[in-house]
Request: fold
Amino acid sequence: MKRISTSSHGRWSVLQPTAVNRVLDEVRALQSRGQSLVSLMRGQPDLPTPPAVIEAAEHAMRSGRTGYPDNRGEPALRRAVAERLRRDHGLDYDPEREMLITDGATGGLFAALGALLEPGAEVLLPEPIYDAYTGPIQVWGGKPVFVPPLFENGRFSVDVQALKNAVSKRTRAILINTPWNPVGTVFRADELRAIDEFAAEHDLRLLSDEIYETLTFDGKKHVSPASLSATARARTILINSFSKTYAMPGWRVGYCAAAAEIIDRMLLLWQQFSRGPATFIQDAAVAALELGRDYHDNVAREYQTRRDLLLAGLRGIDGVIPLVPEGGFFVMLDVRGLGMSSDQVRRRLLDAGVVVLHGSAYGQAGEGLLRVSFAAGGDVLLKGMEQLRAGLACVSRS
Ligand SMILES: Cc1ncc(COP(=O)(O)O)c(C=O)c1O
Reply:
């Protein structure tokens, strides 16, 4: 029989599995050999999807809302998103022309990068970065350019001077994430303004991933960069999703808002690889947006309690300093005092029965850090924390 030949040089060949998937493979292999492990690794909320959302999906399915969706997104959902952006951020987006409903933030990022990049175009990524940003840039033929951060008093921020050093004629965009996975910074308006000024000077688009927007602590408030000014709005592609803030990671629904010309380009791309989340899921997302401020306040309070529990439980270990996140699902531990790489520490912790992520998975600036998730609470958090504390103390003694 004739052999079917396939190219091993396609765009796919530059891709790596995400850090979470790599570690999950290790975890499954260990578990299949009988090792028991508690995971404080994933950014997967353990709170149930709100009942009103489930009821809306069920009702929609039973009412026959199972046809092809409008490829821009169902009009009712686009209107509901526009309404929410207006109410919460004072942002005015036309739901007819300036919005695309996507399969989570992942779909939105992929389409947005496709709309902006030509082969060889560069995207500035302030480190430490969510590692899944690099793959889509590379698939579209672009080049991720990693930019070192500022790290002062246990808080990471974007170093505008480092951005200036990294920008080139080929730079098209800067990608930021606020609240910032993995380091937990919630950017202040003045910090965003400085980034926006830099972007304006170099005529760059600002990709703004706001997937953790309501998960902020200690009175910190999310600022959407597009709300800074009319020019910031024109430059920004706002990317968001229901995964984290409505406990809907498996529903695969999110949205992008941007100038009509960008959304049009994204829609063209979108029609090639998705065409949008299921119609009944979009109806359920409308029900999610109808949840009041109380829902988000209660959820943020719950995660802040978990964060504080974790911080208290991980203080006082020689060579380990927990950093206090302002938002998101993760505490970073500064483990530089342990005298080994973050990946080595992570492997030692696997032996101690607890799964976390090594900071180096998020780029060079993440080396020396471990990412510990408090997206799961209850017994998982308590047991994981106990084993983490014991494991770190053991590494510290050795
Ligand atoms: C910063 C960030 N952006 C995007 C995503 C992907 O989100 P979604 O589930 O909406 O595709 C994640 C998920 O972990 C994330 O942490």
Summary: Residues 51-291 form a domain with the Aspartate Aminotransferase; domain 2 fold (CATH 3.40.640.10). The CA atoms of residues 48 and 247 lie 6 Å apart. The first helix runs from residue 19 to 32.
